[in-house]
Amino acid sequence: MHPRDLSLDTLLANCAQRHAHRLASVDGTQRLTWSELDARVTNLARWMLAHGIAPGDRIALLLTDGAPYLTALLACGRIGAIAVLLNWRLAPAEIAWICSNAQIAMTFANPRFADLLMEADAGEVHMVDETHAPSGLFEIAATKPHPPLGNGYDLAIGLDLAPDRPLYMMYTSGTTGKPKGCLQAGSAVAASALGFAQHRGFRHDEVLLSVNPMFHVVGMQQVAAMLACGGTSVFAGRDDDSGAILDLLHREGCTTTSAFPTISFPWQAIQPIRNGRMPLTNYTGGAGMGRPTMYEFIETEWDARVVGGYGQTEICGFATFIDYPDMLEAPRSIGWTLPHVTMTVLDPEGNHLPPGEEGELCLRGPSVMLGYWRNPEASEAALGHGWLRTGDLGTMDERGRGYLLGRAKELIKTGGENVYPAEVDAIFAAMPEVADAGCCGVPDRQWGEAVKAFVVLKPGMSLSREEITARFKGQIAGYKRPRYIEFVDRLPRDPIGKLLRRELSARPVSPDQAA
Description:
The structure is a single chain. The chain is of the alpha/beta class and 515 residues long. The protein has 2 domains: 3-280, 3-Layer(aba) Sandwich (Rossmann fold), CATH 3.40.50.12780; 411-513, GMP Synthetase, Chain A, domain 3 (2-Layer Sandwich), CATH 3.30.300.30. It is built from 16 helices and 25 strands. β13 (305-312) and β14 (317-323) form a beta hairpin. The longest helix is centred in the first third of the chain and has 17 residues, at 34-50.
């Protein structure tokens, strides 16, 4: 099969045939087999067509993760509509802007998020009861067989639509202004899912503990990987705490997850190993963070395999992986690319740089985005020179491993010298008193910018600014040392734990923070 013949719909059709009676989805009290999920997708797709939805129309999903989300996404793919995956952590004004930009025709929303739509033109809005009440409109639409409409659209369901047409749109965080709608083709999502599943050795008996929201590319890629291998997606509840999620993991015998530290680290205190076992065999952590030993207990005490990775929304999720032994050997490395991805380092003119030279990490492969929605300038900037320009600075070694130095936009320029924030963060990571730390650039009259660090101390620990400065000496160049240090209770991070340096750099600098 040619890569462009792939789509999530072809993967679903394969699962519905080969694994018809195996579980596809576990969502609260609802358990769906692959044949049941496939039937629901067909029913909902025909219902959407009957309600005037046509190929290319944008359908907003403002839902908690679970079978309805998966059904709606796949139904969009079956009729050629574009699913717009809305982040329910956004403010109403942000949701309204996205709906206006995407020109939404229909919205499926969870009632708990109704207030987020109060300023939005969200088209025809249908509420989806997350309890799967049989009287709910969505359950009726998804479970009641709808006869074929007899038109070209209905005959095209799952058959004649081009797999490389847009499947979904995720809006980026908007670090350089308004968020951009990242368009991904069904073939790209499928290629990413297959590459992910192949690298991790997934089989049809894989059971995913899905804890990352599907509006985020990490959550989406993992669920898509279950479509690629015929495994089961077990969706954690929106209100589940760490204990409830751990209970779910054991109850369903989950074998893989991407539970970042904010979710999995609290498990250490609530008996993660039960009846002498921990069913988890795969775990995705960070890569290039300079502190792989933070995952040591997962490998040793839990007997689970830790895998680090690097990726972007624009390439459908993880593009590289690195196993734990390699993380120990090369703590700053993001590893090697997945089978479907190629990586290189380019200079600003698009020239390839040799191993060891610093430039922009660039990626290429069938899972690269189509472009940004109605934004040709941004699309050209990101996809110029035939590569996805990630905006991340890095290097590659002779063995083809990548190394992440930091975001180009986060690079600190002080006195004409470059300072990569991740390099400074790594020094803090080695300090036993420090629970978390991150740095950013702040304005400086003399040097243009200066390094400011934000430090979270472990409970009961103390560390002065003078002690921190002393520890930096001999480990890092003087111009890279923090000139300001602020002690805080917590650092701002996104749902997968990525530090939001923009928020840090916006905070005021005061003389008493001088190091």
